[in-house]
Amino acid sequence: MIGVNAFGLAMFGLTSVVSGSLFSYENTAEVPPDPDVGKNMIEIVQTRGYEIESHYATTPDGYILNMFRIPNGKNANTKQDNMQSKSPVILQHGLLDSSFTWVNNYDNESLAYILADAGFDVWMGNNRGNRYGRNHTTLDPDDGTLPFWAFSWDEMAAFDVPTMINYVTGNTGSSSVGWVGHSEGTIQMFAASSDAYKSDFLSDAISKVNLFVALAPVAYVYNLKSEPIQFLAKKLIIDEIFYDRHIYEIGKHDDQLNTLAPKVCESYERSCEVFLDLICGPSRNLNESRVQVYVSGTPAGTSTQNMLHWEQGVLVDTFQKFDYGSEEANAAHYDGVTTPPLYDLSKIPEAFNIAMFSGDLDWLADPMDVTHMLEEVPASNVIYNHTTPLFAHLDYTWAWNANAKIYDKVTKLLGQYAKKN
Protein backbone atom coordinates (compact mmCIF):
# COMPACT_ATOMS: atom_id res chain seq x y z
CA MET A 1 0.00 0.00 0.00
CA ILE A 2 2.33 2.66 -1.22
CA GLY A 3 3.01 5.39 -3.73
CA VAL A 4 2.99 9.12 -4.09
CA ASN A 5 -0.53 9.02 -2.79
CA ALA A 6 -0.46 6.09 -0.46
CA PHE A 7 -2.46 8.30 1.83
CA GLY A 8 -5.28 8.11 -0.70
CA LEU A 9 -7.35 5.60 1.25
CA ALA A 10 -7.14 7.78 4.33
CA MET A 11 -8.23 10.75 2.24
CA PHE A 12 -11.76 9.48 2.72
CA GLY A 13 -11.48 10.76 6.27
CA LEU A 14 -9.42 13.82 5.52
CA THR A 15 -12.06 16.41 6.20
CA SER A 16 -13.00 15.00 9.59
CA VAL A 17 -9.36 14.57 10.56
CA VAL A 18 -8.10 18.03 9.83
CA SER A 19 -11.20 19.87 11.00
CA GLY A 20 -11.63 17.80 14.16
CA SER A 21 -9.63 17.41 17.33
CA LEU A 22 -6.81 15.19 16.05
CA PHE A 23 -4.76 18.18 14.97
CA SER A 24 -4.96 21.43 16.90
CA TYR A 25 -2.66 24.16 15.65
CA GLU A 26 -2.64 27.87 16.14
CA ASN A 27 -1.09 28.38 12.71
CA THR A 28 -4.03 27.16 10.63
CA ALA A 29 -4.28 30.45 8.77
CA GLU A 30 -6.18 30.21 5.54
CA VAL A 31 -4.06 30.47 2.41
CA PRO A 32 -5.36 31.92 -0.86
CA PRO A 33 -6.98 29.43 -3.23
CA ASP A 34 -4.55 28.31 -5.91
CA PRO A 35 -5.76 28.83 -9.50
CA ASP A 36 -4.43 25.36 -10.43
CA VAL A 37 -6.91 23.60 -8.13
CA GLY A 38 -9.26 21.38 -10.12
CA LYS A 39 -7.40 21.51 -13.41
CA ASN A 40 -7.01 18.29 -15.37
CA MET A 41 -3.92 17.16 -17.29
CA ILE A 42 -4.66 19.13 -20.45
CA GLU A 43 -5.58 22.31 -18.60
CA ILE A 44 -2.64 22.49 -16.24
CA VAL A 45 -0.04 21.71 -18.93
CA GLN A 46 -1.49 24.28 -21.30
CA THR A 47 -1.52 26.81 -18.46
CA ARG A 48 2.24 26.34 -18.21
CA GLY A 49 2.57 27.09 -21.93
CA TYR A 50 3.40 23.59 -23.20
CA GLU A 51 1.92 21.57 -26.04
CA ILE A 52 0.19 18.39 -24.85
CA GLU A 53 -1.27 15.41 -26.70
CA SER A 54 -3.68 12.72 -25.48
CA HIS A 55 -3.08 9.12 -26.60
CA TYR A 56 -4.74 5.76 -25.90
CA ALA A 57 -2.87 2.47 -25.58
CA THR A 58 -4.83 -0.78 -25.33
CA THR A 59 -3.43 -3.72 -23.37
CA PRO A 60 -3.73 -7.35 -24.54
CA ASP A 61 -6.43 -7.89 -21.90
CA GLY A 62 -8.48 -4.92 -23.09
CA TYR A 63 -7.67 -2.03 -20.75
CA ILE A 64 -7.47 1.33 -22.51
CA LEU A 65 -4.79 3.51 -20.93
CA ASN A 66 -4.80 7.25 -21.52
CA MET A 67 -1.23 8.46 -22.00
CA PHE A 68 -0.20 12.09 -22.29
CA ARG A 69 2.67 13.48 -24.31
CA ILE A 70 4.61 16.73 -24.11
CA PRO A 71 6.54 16.56 -27.39
CA ASN A 72 8.43 19.83 -27.04
CA GLY A 73 9.78 22.22 -24.49
CA LYS A 74 8.85 25.90 -24.39
CA ASN A 75 12.30 26.91 -25.60
CA ALA A 76 12.35 27.12 -29.39
CA ASN A 77 15.74 25.39 -29.41
CA THR A 78 14.15 22.19 -28.09
CA LYS A 79 11.60 22.02 -30.91
CA GLN A 80 12.79 19.83 -33.73
CA ASP A 81 11.13 19.09 -37.05
CA ASN A 82 12.27 15.48 -36.86
CA MET A 83 10.62 14.04 -33.74
CA GLN A 84 12.45 10.76 -34.25
CA SER A 85 15.69 12.49 -33.23
CA LYS A 86 14.32 13.18 -29.75
CA SER A 87 14.73 10.62 -26.97
CA PRO A 88 11.39 9.43 -25.55
CA VAL A 89 10.92 8.87 -21.83
CA ILE A 90 7.92 7.45 -19.95
CA LEU A 91 7.03 8.82 -16.51
CA GLN A 92 4.99 6.40 -14.40
CA HIS A 93 3.10 7.41 -11.26
CA GLY A 94 2.56 5.80 -7.86
CA LEU A 95 -0.41 4.14 -6.16
CA LEU A 96 -3.72 6.03 -6.26
CA ASP A 97 -2.00 8.67 -8.33
CA SER A 98 -1.99 9.61 -12.01
CA SER A 99 0.11 11.37 -14.62
CA PHE A 100 -0.99 14.62 -12.94
CA THR A 101 1.79 14.12 -10.38
CA TRP A 102 4.48 14.91 -13.00
CA VAL A 103 2.98 18.28 -13.99
CA ASN A 104 1.29 19.65 -10.86
CA ASN A 105 4.10 22.02 -9.85
CA TYR A 106 5.62 24.93 -11.73
CA ASP A 107 7.60 24.45 -14.92
CA ASN A 108 10.96 24.66 -13.12
CA GLU A 109 9.83 22.13 -10.49
CA SER A 110 7.88 19.36 -12.27
CA LEU A 111 9.91 16.63 -13.96
CA ALA A 112 7.77 16.48 -17.12
CA TYR A 113 8.41 20.14 -17.95
CA ILE A 114 12.08 19.93 -17.02
CA LEU A 115 12.66 16.95 -19.33
CA ALA A 116 10.69 18.56 -22.16
CA ASP A 117 12.79 21.72 -21.87
CA ALA A 118 15.91 19.53 -21.89
CA GLY A 119 14.90 18.15 -25.30
CA PHE A 120 13.18 14.88 -24.36
CA ASP A 121 9.96 13.59 -25.88
CA VAL A 122 7.98 13.19 -22.64
CA TRP A 123 5.23 10.59 -22.25
CA MET A 124 3.23 10.12 -19.05
CA GLY A 125 1.50 6.81 -18.43
CA ASN A 126 -1.57 5.89 -16.40
CA ASN A 127 -2.18 2.51 -14.84
CA ARG A 128 -5.42 0.61 -15.25
CA GLY A 129 -8.12 1.72 -12.83
CA ASN A 130 -7.12 5.32 -12.19
CA ARG A 131 -9.07 8.32 -13.50
CA TYR A 132 -7.32 8.03 -16.87
CA GLY A 133 -7.48 4.24 -17.03
CA ARG A 134 -11.18 3.48 -16.46
CA ASN A 135 -11.88 2.26 -19.98
CA HIS A 136 -11.98 -1.22 -21.45
CA THR A 137 -12.88 -2.80 -24.75
CA THR A 138 -15.63 -4.96 -23.18
CA LEU A 139 -15.80 -4.47 -19.38
CA ASP A 140 -17.66 -1.74 -17.50
CA PRO A 141 -15.94 -0.21 -14.44
CA ASP A 142 -19.26 1.14 -13.15
CA ASP A 143 -21.47 -1.96 -13.29
CA GLY A 144 -20.79 -2.91 -9.65
CA THR A 145 -19.17 -6.24 -10.51
CA LEU A 146 -15.62 -7.53 -10.10
CA PRO A 147 -14.36 -8.30 -13.64
CA PHE A 148 -13.01 -4.84 -14.56
CA TRP A 149 -11.38 -4.49 -11.11
CA ALA A 150 -9.83 -7.97 -10.92
CA PHE A 151 -6.23 -6.74 -11.08
CA SER A 152 -3.27 -5.63 -9.00
CA TRP A 153 0.20 -4.43 -9.83
CA ASP A 154 0.83 -7.95 -11.17
CA GLU A 155 -1.23 -7.06 -14.25
CA MET A 156 0.29 -3.58 -14.41
CA ALA A 157 3.66 -5.30 -14.70
CA ALA A 158 2.59 -8.02 -17.12
CA PHE A 159 0.43 -5.87 -19.43
CA ASP A 160 0.51 -2.11 -18.74
CA VAL A 161 4.31 -1.80 -18.75
CA PRO A 162 4.95 -3.52 -22.11
CA THR A 163 1.88 -1.94 -23.70
CA MET A 164 3.04 1.58 -22.89
CA ILE A 165 6.63 0.90 -23.93
CA ASN A 166 5.54 -0.56 -27.26
CA TYR A 167 3.08 2.24 -27.87
CA VAL A 168 5.73 4.92 -27.34
CA THR A 169 8.42 3.26 -29.43
CA GLY A 170 5.89 2.47 -32.14
CA ASN A 171 4.65 6.06 -32.34
CA THR A 172 8.05 7.73 -32.15
CA GLY A 173 10.11 5.37 -34.28
CA SER A 174 12.66 5.18 -31.47
CA SER A 175 14.34 1.87 -30.76
CA SER A 176 14.53 2.57 -27.02
CA VAL A 177 12.84 4.54 -24.26
CA GLY A 178 13.68 5.70 -20.76
CA TRP A 179 11.38 4.80 -17.86
CA VAL A 180 11.08 6.93 -14.72
CA GLY A 181 8.88 5.38 -12.05
CA HIS A 182 7.83 6.61 -8.66
CA SER A 183 6.89 4.00 -6.05
CA GLU A 184 4.22 1.82 -7.73
CA GLY A 185 5.75 2.95 -11.00
CA THR A 186 8.90 1.17 -9.80
CA ILE A 187 7.39 -2.02 -8.39
CA GLN A 188 5.63 -2.74 -11.67
CA MET A 189 8.92 -2.32 -13.53
CA PHE A 190 10.87 -4.45 -11.07
CA ALA A 191 8.21 -7.15 -11.46
CA ALA A 192 8.12 -6.83 -15.25
CA SER A 193 11.89 -7.00 -15.64
CA SER A 194 12.14 -9.93 -13.21
CA ASP A 195 9.58 -11.88 -15.23
CA ALA A 196 10.85 -10.82 -18.66
CA TYR A 197 12.44 -14.23 -19.30
CA LYS A 198 9.02 -15.89 -19.09
CA SER A 199 7.39 -14.11 -22.03
CA ASP A 200 8.50 -12.91 -25.46
CA PHE A 201 5.98 -10.05 -25.23
CA LEU A 202 7.48 -8.86 -21.94
CA SER A 203 11.08 -9.60 -22.88
CA ASP A 204 10.85 -7.63 -26.11
CA ALA A 205 9.42 -4.58 -24.35
CA ILE A 206 11.92 -4.65 -21.48
CA SER A 207 14.80 -4.87 -23.96
CA LYS A 208 13.73 -1.45 -25.29
CA VAL A 209 14.28 0.31 -21.93
CA ASN A 210 17.62 2.11 -22.07
CA LEU A 211 17.43 3.24 -18.44
CA PHE A 212 15.04 2.58 -15.56
CA VAL A 213 15.10 5.45 -13.05
CA ALA A 214 13.55 4.28 -9.77
CA LEU A 215 12.39 7.12 -7.51
CA ALA A 216 11.44 5.85 -4.04
CA PRO A 217 12.13 2.29 -5.27
CA VAL A 218 9.83 -0.44 -4.03
CA ALA A 219 9.77 -4.21 -4.19
CA TYR A 220 9.55 -4.98 -0.47
CA VAL A 221 7.37 -2.97 1.95
CA TYR A 222 7.57 -5.14 5.07
CA ASN A 223 9.58 -2.58 7.06
CA LEU A 224 7.61 0.54 6.22
CA LYS A 225 7.33 2.88 9.20
CA SER A 226 3.92 4.41 8.52
CA GLU A 227 1.78 3.40 11.49
CA PRO A 228 -1.55 4.20 9.78
CA ILE A 229 -0.60 1.93 6.86
CA GLN A 230 0.52 -0.81 9.24
CA PHE A 231 -2.77 -0.53 11.11
CA LEU A 232 -4.81 -0.82 7.92
CA ALA A 233 -2.86 -3.91 6.87
CA LYS A 234 -2.71 -5.73 10.20
CA LYS A 235 -6.38 -5.15 10.98
CA LEU A 236 -7.36 -6.27 7.47
CA ILE A 237 -9.39 -3.08 7.06
CA ILE A 238 -9.40 -3.24 3.27
CA ASP A 239 -10.55 -6.86 3.28
CA GLU A 240 -13.41 -6.36 5.70
CA ILE A 241 -14.68 -2.89 4.80
CA PHE A 242 -14.23 -3.02 1.05
CA TYR A 243 -13.54 -6.37 -0.59
CA ASP A 244 -15.82 -8.50 1.57
CA ARG A 245 -18.63 -6.01 0.92
CA HIS A 246 -18.11 -6.18 -2.84
CA ILE A 247 -16.61 -2.71 -3.10
CA TYR A 248 -14.06 -3.25 -5.84
CA GLU A 249 -12.79 0.29 -6.44
CA ILE A 250 -10.91 2.44 -3.93
CA GLY A 251 -10.05 6.12 -4.07
CA LYS A 252 -12.02 6.95 -7.20
CA HIS A 253 -11.37 10.45 -8.43
CA ASP A 254 -14.55 12.07 -7.23
CA ASP A 255 -15.79 15.59 -7.87
CA GLN A 256 -16.98 16.02 -4.29
CA LEU A 257 -13.89 14.63 -2.56
CA ASN A 258 -11.41 16.24 -4.92
CA THR A 259 -13.20 19.57 -4.56
CA LEU A 260 -13.65 19.46 -0.80
CA ALA A 261 -10.13 18.28 0.09
CA PRO A 262 -8.41 21.34 -1.46
CA LYS A 263 -10.75 23.64 0.47
CA VAL A 264 -9.81 21.89 3.71
CA CYS A 265 -6.10 22.18 2.91
CA GLU A 266 -6.62 25.81 1.97
CA SER A 267 -8.05 26.51 5.44
CA TYR A 268 -5.91 24.08 7.46
CA GLU A 269 -2.62 24.18 5.59
CA ARG A 270 -0.34 22.94 8.37
CA SER A 271 -2.78 20.22 9.43
CA CYS A 272 -2.85 18.80 5.90
CA GLU A 273 0.92 18.63 5.81
CA VAL A 274 1.09 16.84 9.16
CA PHE A 275 -1.57 14.41 7.97
CA LEU A 276 0.54 13.53 4.92
CA ASP A 277 3.65 13.23 7.08
CA LEU A 278 1.92 10.62 9.26
CA ILE A 279 1.31 8.46 6.21
CA CYS A 280 4.38 8.96 4.04
CA GLY A 281 7.11 10.33 6.29
CA PRO A 282 8.09 13.82 7.46
CA SER A 283 8.63 15.98 4.41
CA ARG A 284 10.77 19.06 4.82
CA ASN A 285 10.60 20.02 1.17
CA LEU A 286 6.94 20.54 0.27
CA ASN A 287 5.46 23.85 -0.73
CA GLU A 288 2.59 23.85 1.76
CA SER A 289 0.47 26.24 -0.28
CA ARG A 290 0.45 23.75 -3.19
CA VAL A 291 -0.99 20.82 -1.21
CA GLN A 292 -4.48 22.00 -2.14
CA VAL A 293 -3.51 21.49 -5.82
CA TYR A 294 -2.11 18.01 -5.20
CA VAL A 295 -5.23 16.75 -3.41
CA SER A 296 -7.48 18.17 -6.13
CA GLY A 297 -5.97 15.55 -8.44
CA THR A 298 -5.60 12.70 -6.01
CA PRO A 299 -6.65 10.10 -5.02
CA ALA A 300 -7.06 9.09 -8.62
CA GLY A 301 -8.35 5.57 -7.95
CA THR A 302 -7.33 1.92 -8.15
CA SER A 303 -8.80 -1.52 -7.50
CA THR A 304 -9.43 -2.94 -4.06
CA GLN A 305 -7.48 -6.02 -5.20
CA ASN A 306 -4.47 -3.83 -5.88
CA MET A 307 -4.70 -2.35 -2.39
CA LEU A 308 -4.95 -5.86 -0.98
CA HIS A 309 -1.75 -6.80 -2.84
CA TRP A 310 0.06 -3.91 -1.17
CA GLU A 311 -1.41 -4.99 2.16
CA GLN A 312 0.00 -8.48 1.65
CA GLY A 313 3.48 -6.99 1.19
CA VAL A 314 3.21 -5.30 4.57
CA LEU A 315 2.25 -8.58 6.25
CA VAL A 316 4.72 -10.93 4.53
CA ASP A 317 8.36 -10.08 3.79
CA THR A 318 8.36 -11.34 0.21
CA PHE A 319 8.21 -9.91 -3.31
CA GLN A 320 5.44 -12.10 -4.66
CA LYS A 321 2.38 -12.23 -6.82
CA PHE A 322 -1.11 -11.66 -5.45
CA ASP A 323 -2.32 -14.20 -2.88
CA TYR A 324 -5.90 -15.19 -3.72
CA GLY A 325 -6.49 -16.39 -0.17
CA SER A 326 -6.61 -20.17 -0.48
CA GLU A 327 -4.63 -23.01 -1.99
CA GLU A 328 -7.50 -23.77 -4.35
CA ALA A 329 -7.81 -20.19 -5.59
CA ASN A 330 -4.07 -19.82 -6.03
CA ALA A 331 -3.86 -23.10 -7.91
CA ALA A 332 -6.61 -21.93 -10.26
CA HIS A 333 -4.66 -18.77 -11.11
CA TYR A 334 -1.11 -20.12 -11.04
CA ASP A 335 -1.27 -23.33 -13.06
CA GLY A 336 -1.69 -25.63 -10.08
CA VAL A 337 0.78 -23.83 -7.77
CA THR A 338 -0.92 -23.40 -4.39
CA THR A 339 1.19 -20.47 -3.14
CA PRO A 340 1.82 -17.12 -4.86
CA PRO A 341 4.92 -17.33 -7.10
CA LEU A 342 7.85 -15.15 -6.09
CA TYR A 343 9.41 -12.49 -8.28
CA ASP A 344 13.11 -13.25 -8.61
CA LEU A 345 15.07 -9.99 -8.88
CA SER A 346 18.21 -11.92 -9.81
CA LYS A 347 16.51 -12.72 -13.14
CA ILE A 348 16.54 -9.09 -14.29
CA PRO A 349 18.14 -9.08 -17.76
CA GLU A 350 21.87 -8.43 -17.85
CA ALA A 351 21.59 -5.34 -20.08
CA PHE A 352 18.85 -3.70 -18.01
CA ASN A 353 20.21 -0.47 -16.46
CA ILE A 354 18.80 0.84 -13.18
CA ALA A 355 19.37 4.16 -11.39
CA MET A 356 18.08 4.19 -7.81
CA PHE A 357 17.06 7.29 -5.85
CA SER A 358 15.89 6.77 -2.26
CA GLY A 359 15.40 8.99 0.77
CA ASP A 360 16.39 8.48 4.39
CA LEU A 361 13.06 9.90 5.64
CA ASP A 362 10.93 7.75 3.36
CA TRP A 363 8.53 5.79 5.57
CA LEU A 364 7.07 3.82 2.64
CA ALA A 365 10.11 2.94 0.53
CA ASP A 366 11.95 2.26 3.77
CA PRO A 367 15.77 2.17 3.67
CA MET A 368 15.74 -1.39 5.11
CA ASP A 369 13.47 -2.59 2.31
CA VAL A 370 15.55 -0.78 -0.30
CA THR A 371 18.66 -2.51 1.07
CA HIS A 372 16.87 -5.86 0.93
CA MET A 373 16.04 -5.26 -2.71
CA LEU A 374 19.59 -4.20 -3.57
CA GLU A 375 20.89 -7.45 -2.08
CA GLU A 376 18.87 -9.34 -4.71
CA VAL A 377 19.21 -7.14 -7.79
CA PRO A 378 22.44 -8.02 -9.63
CA ALA A 379 25.02 -5.34 -8.81
CA SER A 380 25.93 -5.01 -12.48
CA ASN A 381 22.42 -3.73 -13.26
CA VAL A 382 22.61 -0.82 -10.81
CA ILE A 383 24.50 1.94 -12.59
CA TYR A 384 23.66 4.57 -9.97
CA ASN A 385 22.44 4.43 -6.37
CA HIS A 386 21.91 7.51 -4.23
CA THR A 387 20.19 8.18 -0.92
CA THR A 388 19.05 11.78 -0.53
CA PRO A 389 19.27 13.12 3.04
CA LEU A 390 16.04 14.46 4.52
CA PHE A 391 13.93 13.28 1.57
CA ALA A 392 10.56 11.60 2.14
CA HIS A 393 8.22 9.64 -0.12
CA LEU A 394 6.22 12.52 -1.56
CA ASP A 395 9.25 14.69 -2.20
CA TYR A 396 10.15 12.90 -5.43
CA THR A 397 7.18 14.41 -7.25
CA TRP A 398 5.99 17.27 -5.03
CA ALA A 399 9.09 18.89 -3.52
CA TRP A 400 9.88 22.44 -4.59
CA ASN A 401 13.61 21.56 -4.61
CA ALA A 402 13.42 18.14 -6.32
CA ASN A 403 14.99 19.69 -9.42
CA ALA A 404 18.25 20.53 -7.67
CA LYS A 405 18.31 17.42 -5.48
CA ILE A 406 17.04 14.77 -7.91
CA TYR A 407 15.92 15.87 -11.37
CA ASP A 408 19.17 17.40 -12.54
CA LYS A 409 20.94 14.05 -12.10
CA VAL A 410 17.97 12.14 -13.54
CA THR A 411 18.05 14.31 -16.66
CA LYS A 412 21.78 13.77 -17.14
CA LEU A 413 21.51 10.00 -16.70
CA LEU A 414 18.59 9.73 -19.14
CA GLY A 415 20.55 11.68 -21.72
CA GLN A 416 23.65 9.59 -21.17
CA TYR A 417 21.92 6.24 -21.62
CA ALA A 418 19.70 7.39 -24.48
CA LYS A 419 22.88 8.17 -26.44
CA LYS A 420 24.19 4.66 -25.86
CA ASN A 421 21.24 3.17 -27.74
| Biggest sheet details | 9 strands, mixed
Beta-strand residue fraction? 5-15%
How many runs of DSSP E, i.e. beta strands? 11
Structural class: alpha/beta
- Rg on CA atoms, Å: 20 Å
The helix/strand series, from N terminus to C terminus, equals HHEEEHEEHEHHEHHEHHHEHHEHEHH
Number of helices: 16
| C-alpha geometry | globular
Tell me, rounded to a whole number, the average pLDDT.
88
List low-confidence stretches.
1-29
Intertermini distance: 35 Å
Helix content: 25-40%
What report would you give on this structure?
This protein has 421 residues and is α/β, with parallel strands linked by helices. It has 16 helices and 11 strands. It has helices at 14-19, 41-47, 111-117, 153-172, 184-194, 200-206, 227-234, 237-242, 257-267, 269-280, 291-294, 304-315, 327-333, 367-376, 395-398, 402-419, and strands at residues 53-58, 63-70, 88-92, 121-124, 135-136, 177-182, 209-215, 249-250, 302-303, 354-359, 382-388. Strand 10, helix 14 (367-376) and strand 11 form a beta-alpha-beta unit. Helix 4 (153-172) packs across helix 6. The radius of gyration is 20 Å and the shape is globular. The model is unreliable at 1-29 (pLDDT under 50).
Keywords:
about 425 residues; alpha/beta; two-stranded antiparallel ribbon; 11 strands; about 35% helix; globular; disordered N terminus
List the helices and strands and how they pair.
Elements: H1 14-19, H2 41-47, E1 53-58, E2 63-70, E3 88-92, H3 111-117, E4 121-124, E5 135-136, H4 153-172, E6 177-182, H5 184-194, H6 200-206, E7 209-215, H7 227-234, H8 237-242, E8 249-250, H9 257-267, H10 269-280, H11 291-294, E9 302-303, H12 304-315, H13 327-333, E10 354-359, H14 367-376, E11 382-388, H15 395-398, H16 402-419
Parallel strand pairs: 3-4, 3-6, 6-7, 7-10, 10-11
Antiparallel strand pairs: 1-2, 2-4, 2-5, 8-9
